[in-house]
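DM from R.C. (forwarded with permission)

"hey, sorry to bug you on a friday — could you get me a structure for this? deadline for the figure draft is monday and I only need the backbone to look sensible"
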Amino acid sequence: MKPLFRRTLTGAFAGLASSYPLAATNAAPHASLLVGIVLGAAFAAGLGRIRGAYAEGAMAGAALGIPLWILVTCIGVPSLTVGFPPFDADSIRTLFPALVGWTLYGGLLGVLTQAFSEVVDRVAGAESEPAQAQGPASKNVVILGGGFAGMATAAGLEQDLHGGGPVSVTLVSDQNALLFTPMLAEVAGGSLEASHISTPLRSSLHRTEFVRGLAEAVDFERRVVKVSCVGGAPGTAREIPYDHLVLALGSVSNYFGADNIERHSLDFKTLLDASRIRNHVIEMFERADREPDPETRRALVTFVVAGGGFAGVELAGAINDFSRGISADYPAVASGEIRVMLVHSRDRILPELSESLARYAQGRMAARGVDFRLGTRVLDAQPGQVTLSDGVVRTQTLVWTAGTAPNPLLKSFGLETDKRGAAVVESTMAVAGRPGVWALGDCAAVKDGISGKACPPTAQFALRQGAALARNIGCALRGKPLAPFHFDSLGSLCVVGHQTACAEITLPFARSRSLRFSGLLAWMMWRGIYISKLPGLERKARVLLDWTFEIFFPRDIVQTIEPK
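My reply, with the result:
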């Protein structure tokens, strides 16, 4: 019996056995059983084998409860019966029992899928391992970068080439953890603990050698990478040989040559950046609380965010919620003195979303106190003030999210790059003229193999590129033809403030059309989808606890980093 068919059949039985909560909480019990069987089969086929991981399976299944409740109960069923889903508060409240049913169904499905799989293994024998690469000598795959693209490539290689044998995988990164960047703004806003959205690479990749270091140079003739260990003594660089080299170096902030802005602004790319922003906001309130001059006090609690894309909008919303949430602890600071300003060079924010959703987001954020400066550029920054194209703003806080560029290491490697500085690659993600060298993610100009369009530098595409590249490297090792990369975007999600978000979901059967959501429902979708994507059971549990505590307790104002 083929492994995929076995998992699908096992999942169908697990789905049937788990469907009682669905039948008990939905209006059509027989249809709920059928839906439970189909989703169970899809869940088991997509999840693969996680032997003995009952807790991980339960959490993965339960985390899908919210998006499934939204897609099936809140959208699918009403669309088929009343023509358009009712999104008012009363309608959603009546559908809440179904949310409980979906969550219980998912948790049971995760547990029973693992249990039934083990029973089938005992009866029919364990699944056969995929064929390994054949060759007389060991093959070394070296991955530079531990972000979404690098992590997904390593995980895909472990799955495709597991069992060891003649293939070894080495991942080199200056950080020892994968940062889940979609939740980074919530760290800056004090909603989540910093370490809870990072997954250790060593414990996540079981058959990959991890090296914490920085790539200094690549010798393409000798096929070696020179790596300096982070924190090591000078001159302790080591050379790592490779047969296949994967460049997943990501991107860096682009200040477009504005040295003063780079010197006097806060970056927003890493976990440390988010922690610095949170602690800096607290420090500004501490200073403002003892500042007698009103003008100086207003300047201290004025926060300027440059850039109106996803990162800038989510960060501005998080800072606005955080600053107004902690203002009660600082009685000398009036709520009217707090000012969060979003500066964007275009005529509307969120160019990645439709105009209607972007206008909705701007309206809701403005109602909560965010000041928008559209069609405006940041020209200069000095201590205590920021110069805009339409005037000067007195502030001690400028956060830069207005531009990114591929990692400049690519140019030092002597690779062909486009005007952005991204490595030029074929549709298979192979670097032309460099045998055995591949590039993907933010640092590569990957084009869709079918549409020919450039892939956006987002986590959604980086994850799929990593999985596709792992398959192509496996094919290259086995002497099989490579497949061009193709992926249709599933949509976009953006949280804009307290219990408010925007969501645009692409229809799989009509790519030119999309479903648009906003407000509380979109916010629940954002949290449900991203908690399901967050790697690791422990991280999911910690984030869920953080969100739960946020409901009952005020924002924490403890500074964890010494102010500059």
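R.C.: lifesaver. Residues 129-136 have pLDDT under 50 and may be disordered.
me: no worries. The longest helix spans residues 96-124.
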